[in-house]
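Before surveying the methods themselves, it helps to consider a single example record, giving the amino acid sequence and backbone structure tokens:
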Amino acid sequence: MSDDDVRRVMTALAPRFPNENHMEPDLERIRLLLDLLGSPHKSYPAIHITGTNGKSSTARIVDSLLRAFGVRPGRYTSPHLESVTERITIDGHPLTAEKFGEVYDDIAPYIDMVDSRMPVPMTFFEVLTGMAFAAFADAPVDAAVLEVGLGGLWDATNVVEAQTCVITPVGLDHVPLLGTTISEVAVEKAGIIHPGALVVLAAQPPEAATVLLARAVEVGATVAREGLEFGVVDRRAAVGGQLLTLQGLAGTYDEMFLPLFGAHQAQNAACAVAAVEAFLGGGESRQIDPDAVREGLADARSPGRLEVVRTSPTVVLDAGHNPHGMAATVRALSDSFSFTRLVGVVACLADKDVRGMLEVLDPALTSVVVTTNASPRAMPVDDLYALAVEVFGEDRVSAEDRLDDALDTAVQQAEDEAEYGGAGVIVTGSVVTVGEARILLRAR
């Protein structure tokens, strides 16, 4: 983030950073800000997306599909990989540093007004959410694609009452903030289901499905369920991705190329197509132009999600940061790649289920290099090393204090076995880790 405007805004927001991962169960601050701004969030319809894993990828696929249909979308996702400007995109493009600074300057006086009236100041995420809504109204956009930051019920994005919403698979994450059971987490996710909405529901654990369906009945929402009303009919590996046949809400879409890897991305694509069918149909299920669907899926990108950034040896980046997401990553590695030796570079945040992630990774990795990232929440290398030794055994684990050194070590380990062919490296454990690795590898 070398641009002066971005640095200036991030410096101004620095006192709010500690609150980014703290959820205040109160929407009054963001509502007051938006009231002062003239309710920009009511200027366009929205597709609202929550779940435990797959939210960002689904939002990106929805965004790409809408653009293929000539709809100008604004997309709000989090967290970012490299620059905070990635979080707010208009018509497929992140805000420029200059525009990012302008949007903040426009709403800064109103943020101060909210802070002066409320006992708790606005959080970092609430400010960025206000900026996104304002930027979308100013653009203007035809539709907003909104990813929930944390949970759903009390998330700042939940000031909208979207008539199309998507709930990707629910699992345990942000424990105990969102709850200690899947049912408790599902209650938070169900908060984005509003009266009259059409809910695109990915396949869920039974305890989550029970909660989500009960909420839909309570408010009179219509539910479209993966595996019943829509889903993946067929999936085949293809060069650079996969070839899909998808059953939508009102039609079948054959031979669709998706340049993303893994069954979970096929599932995300199915959810995205169903959501766009509902959205373009005004809440009614109707088949949409297969050629536009084909174009939108082919143009979809999800950086940092099984992203190949180097060959010889192959280096893959994946932002898995909980056991549920890591399990999808491991399945996709087996399904979409043919590694005979795979070295992991792992750095995690200390407040995550790190042991759970390592146990999922264990069968997939030949060896692992543990390290750390720049987040103040990062697990210290010594602590991560001790955990990794318990899971992998001492002979399969090495440690480096710096991520760049860890990348060098892992690549060297992979290259040492080059005579066998099929060696690779996967960098994972945190969105922060993957973002930093992207920067380092691109610089090289």
In short: The domain at 4-298 is CATH 3.40.1190.10 (UDP-N-acetylmuramoyl-L-alanine:D-glutamate ligase).
